[in-house]
Amino acid sequence: MTRRLISTGSPFEKKAGYSRAVVDGHWVFVAGTTGYDYASMTMPTDVADQARNAITTIENALADAGSSLADVVRARYYITDRAHADAVFEVLGAAFGEIRPAATLVICELLSPDMKVEIEVTARRKDARPGDRSG
Question: Taking the domains of the chain in order of start, what are their residue ranges?
Answer without folding.
Answer: 4-124
